[in-house]
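Archive entry: two folds, one per protein. Generate the first.
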Amino acid sequence: MSLLRVCAFAKCLNRRSLFGECAVRVSLADRCQLCLCASIRGGAVRRISETPLLCQRRNVSFVIPKREDAKKRVLEQSQLLDVLEARIQQLQSDIFLDVQHAKVQFVKNPSSGRGVLPAKSPRSTPKEKSSISKSGKTVAKGASESHPSRWMEKLTQEKNNKLTKQQHLHQKIQKNVKEKPTAKSKGSKSSSVLPGTSHKTISTTKKTTVPLIKNRKGRMKLSDEIRAAVSSPVASSSAAAGTAAMAHKVSKGKQKGSKNPVPGKEGQKQTVADPQGMVKELAEVEELERRLSQQVSQWTSSSNPERLQEYSEGAACGDIQLSIRSYLEACVFAGDVERAHRFLLSQHRVMSRRKHLNTGVYNIIMRVWAKKGILNQIGRMFILLEEAGLKPNLGSYCTALECMGRNPNCSPKVIIRCLSQMEEDGLSVDDLFSQCVFRQDERDMVLKAVHIVQPDYQPSLNTNANQCSSSLVKDFYTQKSDHQYPKLDFTQEELQERFKRQLRIEQACTITIDSVEAAKPVTENMAKMRELLADQRAQWQKILLQALRESKMILANTNTKDYRLNLYPYLCVLEDREYVDIMIQSVASLPPSGESLKILASDLGNRVYTKYSVRQKHQNQMVEKLGNIYNGYTELLAKDTKEYDILPREHWCKLETDQSTGPTLQGGETHWPYIVTLELGTYMVDMMVKNLKINSDILNPAFDRKLIPILYHMYTFRSTRQVGFIKPHPILTQMQQEAMETKLTFDSYVMPMQCPPVPWTSVKFGAYLLTPTKLMRTVEGATQHDVLLEKCQDLHAVLDSLNQLGNCAWRINKPLLDIIISIFNDRGSDKLDIPPPLSEAPKIPHFNAQDPTYTASEKAHMKREVINAKKKCSEMHSLRMDALYKLSIANHMRDEIFWFPHNMDFRGRTYPCPPYFNHLGSDVTRAVLVFAEGKPLGPKGLDWLKIHLVNLTGLKKRSSLDGRLEYANTIMEDVLDSADNPLNGKKWWMNADEPWQALSCCMELANAVRSPDPTQFISHFPVHQDGSCNGLQHYAALGRDVIGATSVNLMPCDVPQDVYSGVAQQVEEFRVRDAKSGLKIAQVLEGFISRKVVKQTVMTVVYGVTRYGGRLQIEKRLKEIEEFPKEHVWDASHYLVRMVFSGLKEMFTGTREIQDWLTESARLISKSGHTVEWVTPLGLPIIQPYHRTRNQVLKSTMQHINLQISHDTKERPDTVKQKNAFPPNFIHSLDSTHMMLTALHCYSAGLTFVSVHDCFWTHALTVDTMNKVCREQFVALHSQPILQELSNFLLLKYCAGLPTEAKNKKYQEYRRLLLLLAKVPKTGDFDLQRVKESTYFFS
């Protein structure tokens, strides 16, 4: 034992790392051998700790083996000793090569953490340690339990690893590769082994003794690595041995957790079976890499490759940074500068928190000191920036100069020094005025400071003159001589008055309107309930006001830790009464069945943020400037002003440039993170639940009087998840229902705008006057879309198309609205899609579950009936309230002209911003909307109205236009009867597919045919032209698929081709064939395969529906057929979905190939750790926000809310969602591009144009012009090499710059991705120009 102690102690004194100097290491190895012999034979082993100090204090642990195992143990120990001796010799022979590489390969610990070794040991554990014990146990114990064969296998594997390394070096020498190795050294997982291997790269801790020069990232230069290989006595091992070692290594590596085929094994087989094929593939890869390397310089110049890197760096602390910024801004806005300053300093002092700060955070506080003219505080902030390792940016210098401008005693030398420092940092004074966001008089102060040292300086502003670079619209922006931009039918004075009205609505943030139920006579009970509710609300306001003030005092005084974010500043940005009003409003709109806490809290938080944002704009003094610019903007739109040849966005930008003084309209306010709005909302809900009470005897004096809460916090199950719910007390619900109040209060953004929207001029500015609006709708909390948009400088065409859609003026079809309201107030109509009132809901049965007269089965049946009745009541209430909101808004706007501002989703599909009432809604809402501007029908307008009516009935889908027109003429008697007596006549219109739009069209037709000259009849009615299975049209055009193109009307035909009927016919042929061969289910389906059965599946296949989803769709359709035997539904739906997919594959061969290519590309991209990203032909960047879901818990006093976040960029991509969503999302991005192109060119032709995705609307007069533009733009779009450009983008995005050596960890996946992306699906022979002649392409 004394020998063991001496050896262990000596070794601890000398050991700084696994290998110290060479001589020391050899002697230690000898000692180690001696120690091992002594310890194994003596039955004790030294326990090695991570540090020398611990090693001295705890260097021995005793393990006493059981006597009955003695014989077995002796045999195993002797075998183990042989292995260890061989290992020591191997280490001694390897010493130079391994030290020069500063890394040692050892087998991954299969049972880490189970033995007596410390859990953190792998990074600093010596290699001798692995030779003592690799299972985390002492040798004696390990020897008695482990199998010698394992040790022999590991030793063999070590030899193979070494051979592989040597072979990699040999290959480098042969190829004379000039690139630097990419494998990181210190503790990096990105080692030289192939994917999935169970090896790690461990750095020696003392690198100063290594006689090799490394680059700053710890990687060896290639020349040094080659020199090390040459100096090694075994570096000249044969290439064949190296190849074998590599194949062994790959095959071993892929055993760990991989279900995919092993690339290494496949490669090995391929080499043996087809060496020529392998050579050809390698040549192809080399050619692709050469081509990519040529484009990398262009790629880097456009800053695209940095995009992912920059974003990944910023995303790591993006949410925290956003929370910090919003907290500081709220403090400053509320006037609590001291709290903001303390908080920033507390974050700055601690390194772990300082990493979350960026220059913009410091600038928020600098802005405050600049307003006060305290220059020494600005200087301190610059010192803090330097301490944090951050550089001042334009905003920093802007605040410094503003402070100097406000300070009358500021020395010119200080200003000169500031400007010269800016210049050293590569920033110019012009950049200040063109890129900084100014508030109040900041710009004037900065200019004042500059004028002190440069009296003649005038800012040179960027007029935003750079044009759209997309070749699709280059001519649109450069050749404007023939453009005829439409004017609005208003004078400039009228538009300016409308602006003032809209501004007042948005400043109030809410609007109260009359409900359409107001027409009912007021009964005595209704009046009583309304009075009771008014009294209660007055009391609740006082109670909430007191509770809010008390809770704010507690929050203000109990926040002892300055570095912690709390809600206090967010509760100070508005007046106390405004918070109370928001809470009272939410009680009034709570449904009887309750609302999810998460949804209710988020809604409350967002309302506070909207009001705060509007107040900020007032404080920054931008409202007056907005009014001045809008007054100038009306010159472009008004009918009594001169003609302009510029677009709304261009005109607005010019006006902003001309009026550059004062605040910037595009304010740099920080949007509150979702977690902040949710926490604030939860706090407010908690206050409501605790404080809002009502007397229990308010409706029934017989009850005992006591105060009871009006809101209850309870839990319910959604699927398997428990969800917090806020439910109103039945007394409150009863009072609200019986009161039947005549007023509805909405947020201002819910209403259509009463003036033309502000044109989108940038990602952050457009749509409403003051209400914050996002250009791109995203999942709450997702920021990756905004990052891409802000980096994109070329969105003019996208913004201009949104502006064109938003500039369309609307009005209400009053006669039709009155008919709909009359039915709504008279019990509704399920057939006509008018929801009935709750009085028509089924009564909820009441029964006593304890009643012994009921059997168990009867009780179960009664419970099911109760559940179903409650569910039905809840659904009816939701539908009724939705209809009430839509009809009340329509009724409020009945005498107004109004506009719908637009934005888009992340695929580029456009939507109106007002959520309830818009032209994307149901048949009812579409029917009551007509264009504000009327145009004469012209020579063909009446025919288009008739054809449109037939289209709305859905009766003549397979007929030609002439056939539809002929049918319309035969039913004119019914049409006129419907217009004259809609509710008491023949009611022909009620049987149409879209009954309310059909009735509206009947009325328009009746007025037109009864006018003196139908060609001069002024029509406001929108005529629709709908794409024929638009998704398949884009696929067929991409693949130039002749058969597919014919099926979806890209090819001119005499009658419209119906792809759904075509697929149904194909499936019927398959069924007949199978029925003849005796398949029972095919025989059962005879006579049941129709267009309706297959339509939904065919329509959604193009958008990524799976066979599982398709089967459910067909099952639903079969269940609707009463004659079909229900016992065969399951088998029939399985059979039919297979046949539908087979039929589509035969009809659309090109489509399937493209879809498969897109799917597989997305799968490999997401497997490599990236989300799929692309750019539309109009330059809109798109990224799929699907990541693996992580749970985040929001802790509050009410309950812990579990947030499932699936858009976090720090998580790995969700491969399944990425691959399934890419084909439909890509097609959606193409159909939105086609719509935007059509919108732009219709606008330049003077047309009124709006769209509902792939359904285009215009006046009857201009249908032919719109059809021509629509076809031309589709041909122009698909004349671009869309798939080739996508391939190039994806190759540059995901394959450029990756190393080509086979040793790279991801090489196999990289090669497969490279070859796949480069192999664009082949196209057919379809001539795109034929689309221009196709009548039924859109019809």
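Generate the second and append.
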Amino acid sequence: MTLDRPGEGATMLKTFTVLLFCIRMSLGMTLIVMDPQPELWIESNYPQAPWENITLWCRSPSQISSKFLLLKDKTQMTWIRPSRKTFQVSFLIGALTESNAGLYRCCYWKEPGWSKPSKVLELEAPGQLPKPIFWIQAETPPLPGCNVNILCHGWLQDLVFMLFKEGYAEPVDYQVPTGTMAIFSIDNLTPEDEGVYICRTHIQMLPTLWSEPSNPLKLVVAGLYPKPTLTAHPGPIMAPGESLNLRCQGPIYGMTFALMRVEDLEKSFYHKKTIKNEAYFFFQSLKIQDTGHYLCFYYDASYRGSLLSDVLKIWVTDTFPKTWLLARPSPVVQMGQNVSLRCRGPVDGVGLALYKKGEDKPVQFLDATSIDDNTSFFLNNVTYSDTGIYSCQYLLTWKTSIRMPSHNTVELMVVVKPPKPSLSAWPSTVFKLGKAITLRCRISHPVLEFSLEWEERGTFQKFSVDGDFIISNVDGKGTGTYSCSYRVETHPNIWSHRSEPLKLMGPAGYLTWNYVLNEAIRLSLIVQLVALLLVVLWIRWKCRRLRIREAWLLGTAQGVTMLFIVTALLCCAISFAGLCNGVLIEETEIVMPTPKPELWAETNFPLAPWKNLTLWCRSPSGSTKEFVLLKDGTGWIATRPASEQVRAAFPLGALTQSHTGSYHCHSWEEMAVSEPSEALELLGTDILPKPVISASPPIRGQELQLRCKGWLAGMGFALYKEGQQEPVQQLGAVGREAFFTIQRMEDKDEGNYSCRTHTEQRPFKWSEPSEPLELVIKEMYPKPFFKTWASPVVTPGARVTFNCSTPHQHMSFILYKDGSEIASSDRSWASPGASAAHFLIISVGIGDGGNYSCRYYDFSIWSEPSDPVELVVTEFYPKPTLLAQPGPVVFPGKSVTLRCQGTFQGMRFALLQEGAQVPLQFQSVSGNSADFLLHTVGAEDSGNYSCIYYETTMSNRGSYLSIPLMIWVTDTFPKPWLFAEPSSVVPMGQNVTLWCRGPIHGVGYILHKEEEATSMQLWGSTSNDGAFPITNISGASMGRYSCCYHPDWTSSIKIQPSNTLELIVTGLLPKPSLLAQPGPMVSPGENMTLQCQGQLPDSTFVLLKEGTQEPLEQQRPSGYRADFWMPAVRGEDSGIYSCVYYLDSAPFAASNHSDSLEIWVTDKPPKPSLSAWPGTMFKLGKDIILQCRGPLPGVEFVLEHDGEEAPQQFSEDGDFVINNVEGKGIGNYSCSYRLQAYPDIWSEPSDSLELVGAAGPVAQECTVGNIVRSSLIVVVVVALGVVLAIEWKKWPRLRTRGSETDGRDQTIALEECNQEGEPGTPANSPSSTSRRISVELPVPI
């Protein structure tokens, strides 16, 4: 969009400069952070005649630089490279003459280029002061009552500044500042303050020597007329490329109307002069950059303006922002209760519609005019029919092409009792030695309280608000089965169903040498006791049976003693092996402390922060419950923080003497309190908080960074060294902390350092100096080698091992996280080689990220700190996008920039390459994107790249990884492949899609058609293929096509065309016929010919196969027929074939398809199918028809019946009638067929089919079952008879002995019965004698 009168544009912008700044302040908009300009000024050693010797100074506002550039009249350049990096340099001009008069500006070098130039310094002829420059600065809200600062820069120091207003002879204000700039304040702006202002300077000692007047500045006060109305047509939300009309309407005719976008007031300023009381601002083709807040006003010929219109938010997007739906009081509702569904989204002025899954029409509507912060969808007296998944979408009353994205959903559950939650254990369900387990009870909706039950103990019950329960395993009392339930706030007396039970077991853990040693000793003792017990029992048994002598018992005792000795030696061997430290390095498990919170201050008065100060405390741990702010030992408890932000605010308001003191905060978790944050010290009511300075131990000859933490954002920083009055280094606003760099640490750099902060705008307000930091270079061991065994970019729950090693022997190691010691490993004297320590994090949590380092020491001598390893825990923030500029295909030797676009500002970005263990590059930026430069790439740089971003102040919590981006380093694009779907032979009027596919992502494709000068379509792809749809195909679409890559950047890489695709359109000529010779079925290895017979001469024939996208073969015969010869056919040649033809005079205008011909390449035809009608069971007097069906025509079928050698029936149609006379029809049947052309080749038989009836297999099955059961009964009876016969045979002997012998003989006889047949019984034993005597006794009848 352009201005109506271009010549008036610059004037209008200058005229409304003050108004624009006031508008920005009144709307609460923050100023757009631009790249800081350097400052240019003049110094001279001739104060009364500065033109006699001039030196120009150029100062960088925010960082030291290695190069500075001075420009004169935009053509002449002078640059200086100082001996070391600095923040200001001087350019000697000397005496001012006609030749060196002109317009001067300066720049400084910052990666990757020069900064913006300074303001223009105009040096005129000798004898004149430089012309001052004039601009404004807004401090407080505008309109009548707005405070305005007018700044006048005079380039020289010790000047008198005069402010003049048009119509007044005398100056309205004057100042004598100490610097080169004066600030004139106009408080409580009124219409009387309107007018044209200029600024002039003169030397104090020479009041007659004046500078030229500055450029005039016209000051206009808005709000003298009523405010207009601003509306959008057709609507405030449009897609890119669509047109939009913004209508500004006021009550007065003949005014000039102005429209502006708040986000870019200086550049997006449009005005129109009209005779009506309204003006239309037309946007022909909207862009994404046009999104913003718009307002308008009108003014008269004297530039008296109206009040501002209400702000109108314009959205230009191709996809609607996501809406969020929240159920109040809970998504789980009891029958008959009321529930409100609150839908919110970032788009204002648009209606909302509530949808339920499964229903096409919206359930409820909300008009745009009725939507406010308290408006919701209401469901009253809910029933089971209201159960379902709900979502809400924007409701538009105008047409647009914006896509509706997927929205979050809320599952509404109407229950009598709330549903059961889920119960999980962290880090696992198995106890480790000395470790506790956290049970997590979770449900997707808000909960009042959770309860944990232990099934083994009925009286056990624990309660928790967040659902986390810590279970310890003291004396093994933590193992068992647990479950949990909950209750919601709306129904506190109703508990939910219990979760699924979860069983905890233990103890177990990772096997260390100490654990293995203890277990081995315990097991060996158990084995000894068991062995001793077995020996004692064996000796006792042998003594009773054999009455062995004492000598044998002594030998046995010696054996047992030897067993004990051998076992003891084995235990010693195991112990010695465990003490050999050179075999295995023990892993030290890291017990993470509760992470330290971060404390900072915020204010809405950047020039005077003490007017309203708020302290914020934030924790990196997601399980933080509350925060405590301590001041000199007295604390205030904050409310519970939000679950996502995990922070709390402590408003202090305007600072008074009662607020002075030292502040720090703690974060409270369920079972622990964190370490205190760094102390924030407030010293007075008009003094900035005292900063904190820190640094790592200095090392001779190496770079050292000093960190100055200033607590407030937007402050400048200055570094001081004891003994020097001026700052050693100065840095501009870089967040809440700054890093000063000493490039090479030497003895001269030793000393006490301190830092101060100050407001960014002059006049500066300074803080007190920090506590001094002494830098002393000490003798140290060289730094250790420190790394992780895997990538330092990990997901939650991953296992991380840090390896810290040094070639020195017998060293102890310390592991640090963010400068604090968290673990240690003592020295080992047994190992003769290098020292090393492994620090293990078994399961990484979201708060375990950070900067890790290690050191080693030996008595009083420490090593240098290792290089830090940044451990980043991902999957906390949304994933970024990674793009290649100019493109993903790079010529060898060229450079490519990979831009990683994140969601949040002030993050640190990392670039990763697939296959690399550590990230390739890191960048900390103030915006939300980072550019990674791959310089002079080669073939080894090809591969998949991804990126992440993470916050450095909160445990390196990172984002998900971006989608991988493939970078190709080549001098020639790979050749793409062009094919048609479903086929390149398409009937008239059908649709076809031409696919151009290649391996490169993010590159467009272009489709060419032969004999056409221009390409058909251009397709910008984000995947690896491009689709070119052709709908309702006609004769104009047929022809030869090809495609190629179409990069949207300039490149010298060669582009190769794809294969040529012939698109044939059928249905324009009579169809041909297709025959197979010798037949449609052949054996593998034989030859076949397919004959396509057309109806017109001079034709080209095309052979097609179903499922194949391209034609198999084309022929141009001399007659009406084409023979397609297929030698040595194989199984994959089977299929359905057809053919078409087209005339040479009209290529690609083909005939209809021939009738399909199915070809079989097999030794045996495929088996047929066999079915019975009406069923497989015979009924009285009814027949059954068996139907045999095959896949080939012209065949003869045969039916076979199991048990009969010869086939029963033959049939050409496959139908066989079966009757059941005398039960002969029942049984199993199968069928097969043979081709009439090949009577000797039979197909495989079909699956068998069984026919049953009254005299069929059912009766036979019953008879067989009876026979089996009868046989089992007979076997059992015979077995019982044999047992009884044997027992009866023994019984008379026992009975006789019982009647004839005394009690002693009865006992012997019973003993003989029990020991009969026992081998090894001596002949003279008592039992033998008894047996001999008892046999001789008479047996009475």
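Annotation attached to the second fold: The radius of gyration is 48 Å. The chain has a mean pLDDT of 77.
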